[in-house]
Design a protein that fits this description.
- This protein is of the alpha/beta class and 238 residues long.
- It is built from nine helices and seven strands, in the order H-H-E-H-E-H-E-H-E-H-E-H-H-H-E-E.
- It has helices at 23-40, 43-55, 71-82, 96-103, 116-121, 140-154, 169-179, 192-202, 206-212, and strands spanning 60-65, 87-93, 110-113, 128-132, 159-165, 217-222, 226-232.
- Helix 3 (71-82) links the parallel strand 1 and strand 2.
- Helix 2 (43-55) packs across helix 3 (71-82) and helix 7 (169-179) packs antiparallel against helix 8.
- It binds S-adenosylmethionine.
- S-adenosylmethionine binds next to helix 1, strand 2 and helix 6.
Length: 238
Amino acid sequence: MAVDLTSRAVDARELMDDPHADQDMLERTYERFSLVNAVVSRWRSVYRRDIRPRAQQAPLRVLDVGAGGGDVSRAIAAWASKDALPITVTALDADPRAIQWARGRGSAVEYRCAYTGELADADERFDVVISNHLLHHLSGDELAGVLRDCARLVGDGGIVIHRDIERSRFAYRAFAAATWPFAATLLADSFIRVDGLTSIRRAYTADELASTAPSGWRVRRAFPARVELRWEASRAGS
Ligand SMILES: C[S@@+](CC[C@H](N)C(=O)[O-])C[C@H]1O[C@@H](n2cnc3c(N)ncnc32)[C@H](O)[C@@H]1O
């Protein structure tokens, strides 16, 4: 039976979000995120386009919201170190299991377990706030809250870049086909394949994000099947 992708499957739950999820499967999932992100998420291009030029002007504080296993955070810290740029990266996740696992992967990044609202209420500030594969996790109300928090967290001069998968028949079929040969090997004993397909069913389209996000947020599409929701404080009023 064909999967219905005409609207967000907001009631579909990802297995990794179950508080009773098998710990070994969960940890294997965090570990494999780096593989998936290296293939589809393309943060190197965001680093070159949006992060590196800013760090060449002044020291930069980057916050990665919903960091999961923290691989995107660690990749940015490693690229910055290679470029000898003054970038500090904080990986934030509301799930203590993610932060505990990520902390064991090195100290180039600061790891924090909290919600964005807690940081915004404490008047914390960052120059760049990013997320990867976070938006599809959120309900409409949660999305509105996270966008409000992120705009507060970057204050007047910063930029927010949320990147996620865009729901489409192409994305669903491509992910299903690309992961099928590895289901019993590389991706075995992880939630990557099942949760990845659920994520695509839960994901926003670019048009949905454009009509949901408050004014000042801009939506872009990127390859492959990416959608980017951006807030640039200096342009938000224009
Ligand atoms: C699919 S994972 C993505 C992890 C990582 N960014 C990646 O791309 O591999 C989504 C993560 O967002 C976290 N999350 C969901 N809602 C959140 C919120 N409101 N604040 C902080 N983290 C949240 C979840 O705990 C989960 O670890």
